[in-house]
Design goal:
The protein has 316 residues and is mostly helical. The chain folds into 2 domains: 120 residues, TerB-like (Orthogonal Bundle), CATH 1.10.3680; 189 residues, no CATH class. 68% of the residues lie in helices and 0% in strands. The chain is built from 15 helices and no strands. α8 runs antiparallel to α13 and α9 packs parallel to α15. The chain starts with a helix and ends with a helix.
Length: 316
């Protein structure tokens, strides 16, 4: 994939991220921060792309000519769908944007709709699994919760999401956020709190994890590293494939799980700043753990396929 194609795909993603003017300015600020982080690829100036989109100096018509290959057109659409689905159900404005994008890219309707439906299923997946245990009594004493079992569950979830970061399919990237939300839900349930999706999203945002911006960072790093949408050669066929994994998904999942455990164990009394500080501290701890668990992450990645990923998110 050429640099021009990559730049155009990232621009389409930013157009999707800002298509819904109802998004909170906090999320916009996170997108800008992610763009600065991705600017390490000197051939693509992400902060400039963000500014061009925000000031409407660039439109779909401007970037479509560079998407000459069928692979790049499909990947642009898939990533735009992921951006719009990252924070839940699509707004009417986002739906209209995606319809315009699909038509402009001249994608086959059935294929595009199938992908959009699968992505929507991931975004709307219930937090509770079909075999979920009933929640403990609200305010149950911490001693009644098996902290070691929760620690093991958090680590397992982090390893799974770290494995998803290594997979080239777009749907694998989209599954990371729903699985993080399920983890927070299960931790809250263990401490007697029956949560809904809105509460879990608020918890993630308060801790400093924006949903749209997190997806953009995960997918952007894969795209810039040459992994997203890659075909052939085997999952671990070369140094480039290995290097594309930053461990971000392992780190963010582990940190969120540990912060959630402390938050709900303590009766949800941590302030916003305390949550943010705790999340920052836990990401540093998780970064130190990543190398130790990389072999397990790689082993799980080899065993995963899109069908298994969909089943995990659905809770089956």
């Amino acid at each position: 994939m050429t640099t021009d194609e990559t730049r155009s795909i990232l621009t389409v993603c930013l157009l999707a991220a800002f298509a819904d003017g109802a998004k909170h300015e906090r999320e916009h600020a996170e997108v800008r921060r992610i763009a600065e982080g991705l600017a390490q690829d000197a051939s693509i100036n992400m902060p400039t792309l963000v500014q061009d989109v925000l000031t409407k100096r660039v439109t779909l018509a401007d970037v479509l000519p560079a998407l000459a290959s069928e692979e790049s057109r499909h990947l642009a659409y898939e990533m735009a769908v992921g951006v719009c689905d990252a924070d839940g159900a699509q707004s009417p404005v986002e739906q209209a944007f995606l319809a315009e994008l699909r038509a402009a890219l001249k994608l086959e309707l059935l294929s595009a709709d199938t992908f959009a439906r699968q992505s929507g299923e991931l975004a709307a997946a219930p937090l509770a699994s079909q075999a979920a245990a009933p929640a403990a009594a609200a305010g149950a004493p911490v001693a009644s919760v098996d902290a070691k079992a929760l620690d093991a569950e958090i680590l397992s979830a982090a390893i799974t999401n770290g494995a998803l970061e290594l997979l080239p399919e777009s749907l694998s990237t989209m599954a990371i956020i729903p699985l993080q939300m399920k983890l927070v839900y299960r931790i809250g349930q263990a401490y007697g709190y029956q949560l809904d999706a809105g509460h879990v999203k608020d918890f993630l945002a308060t801790a400093g994890v924006g949903l749209t911006s997190q997806y953009l960072e995960q997918a952007g790093r894969k795209l810039l590293g040459g992994l997203l949408g890659a075909i052939g050669g085997g999952l671990f066929g070369g140094i480039g494939r290995q290097a594309v994994s930053s461990g971000m998904s392992f780190v963010s999942t582990y940190a969120l799980g540990q912060v959630a455990r402390r938050y709900y164990a303590g009766g949800r009394v941590l302030s916003t700043q305390m949550l943010k500080d705790s999340y920052t501290a836990m990401t540093q701890e998780a970064q130190g753990l990543y190398g130790r668990h990389l072999p397990a992450i790689q082993e799980q990645a080899r065993a995963l396929d899109p069908g298994k990923v969909m089943a995990m998110v659905r809770g089956r």
